Amino acid sequence: MKLLDANVVIYSEGREHPYRGPCKIVMEQVNACPGEYAIDVESLQEILHVYSKRGESEKGMAVAQRLLNLFSEIIPITTAEIVTAIRLFRETPGLSGRDAIHAAVVMEHGLEGIVSADRDFDRIPGLRRYDPMELAAGQGAAG
Question: pTM for this structure?
Fold first, then answer.
């Protein structure tokens, strides 16, 4: 199971961007096989935040609701994830707190990795990042 980063969802819903097409393909894969992916509460918070800052709160709520309908379980952020996030934050200069939390979720829940366009995850030892362009190319689509 792979953690789905909010940026995959946001790119798939957004304006023209090199990641838009690949992220749409990844979201089609997620919709077809939701059991192969996971989402955490931090991603839902990020989606609501991004759309709110853009003045698109209604769209953010609709996107978050679709994800709630798709995933039977949303991974919570508990003390264990925060402790691991603090360690990662300390060990990886320049890592954002949000990225540290996502990485901690992957590690604490024994997930395969994170699907994300964010290359900052590549700097975290032991964490595998699945680039949406590579995942989409694996489905026969151009990245």
Answer: 0.92
